[in-house]
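Exam revision sheet. Question 4 asks you to relate a sequence to its structure. Input first:
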Amino acid sequence: MSNPKWGIVLYMYIFIIKLYIGSCSTSFSSDPIAQQQLDRVLHLPGQDFNVSFAHYSGYVTVNEESGRALFYWFTDAADDPSSKPLVLWLNGGPGCSSIAYGMAEEIGPFHIEKDGKTLYLNPNAWNEVANLLFVDSPVGVGFSYSNTSSDLLSNGDKRTAADSLAFLLKWFERFPQYKGRDFYITGESYAGHYVPQLSQAIVRHNSAAGEKTINLKGYMVGNALTDDYHDHLGLFEFMWSAGMISDQTYKKLNIFCDFQPFIRSSEQCDKVLDIADEEIGNIDAYSIFTPPCTANFNLSNRLWKRWRTVGRISQKYDPCTEKHSVMYFNLPEVQNALHVYPGGAPSKWDTCSDVVGLNWKDSPKSVLNIYRELIRSGLRIWIFSGDTDAVIPVTSTRYSIKALRLPTVGPWRAWYDDGQVGGWTQEYEGLTFVTVRGAGHEVPLHKPKLALSLIKSFLAGNSMPKLELVSDA
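Answer key, structure tokens:
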């Protein structure tokens, strides 16, 4: 019979070794291939199925002086990854985790069951067509951290873009097989700022370097915060036209909130938003035709939180998906499997950080100027919109695109999936707009099959599918 004391000693030895490896993984190894292999995830708790692809997670230090490190999770394409492009996905907030949303309930291959402990394979994962990279950005979000506590109180758009660029440059050193690979950036919600800002930073970095250090080909954003004035104008119009608010409140919103920033609005605007919130009632503003989560989960419709990317639906309709993520990613065995650095992990992991969101420092009222710059650079730029979202609705996006004054090269039309209308699309000179029928704020969550069709067309540079007529002959 074995001595239980030796079992305890062995367990402590293994634990110390893992602590050491975890701390080492936060710094950049002199041998990138060795560090890459240290980051490889061998098995996930609750995974009772095999996968055909490798996946990796860990940290990349983006600022040595303050000790800022961003957490990532990367999955190879399911088939022939060497022939597939690299796609980065970013969630918004500001302060929300790309691991919680993008990976665990939208486009990633690993999704979480209702028990908060078991995984299932997403049949519409985007790694069917691309190698997928998810990053918790900025520091203070998800498992990303800083050794300088004040960093969590001083995040903003400019530093987020700079840190994300630093992350990518170091990540490509760790994964040299992806250097030069066609690279695309995607995201949703407040990533409507992150994605074009990071794209701009890459284009300018490449120009300064005199070469394509990062082979950025284009970007795509969904239900994206783009221009505060037009986003507000479209939001209030959508709520009124859907019968969610009264005529009087609609008028007051346009008077007191039109020119207010989305991040911090005035006291007068907040009062009208409170009235609107009361009139709207207990619905899910992120998906207005589906019921909210009510199972011991505090879901507020307060419009001042309207940029938070709250999750909703999984295999079958499940409005409490976010709750499952909170359970799963707080499990010590899950954090251990993902190489979460014990010294940097939060005492309680959450999908979004109020500390980051409420202390956000800089947020421009519009990123349309960045669109104008990047359209001239020749990047492939797409914007998509779930049409049942009352947070950043389709009307907001249409007003923002209209403000760009782009010539139309492909008129408004329906696009199709399996013979059914999947949504509508219009092609402009330098930009393509796509709506997704029946989808809420998180398009890949609400309409995963349609979202897979969307990314396939985007990566191929094709128009959205037309109706295919089948001959009787």
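Marking note for examiners. Residues 1-28, 296-316 have pLDDT under 50 and may be disordered.
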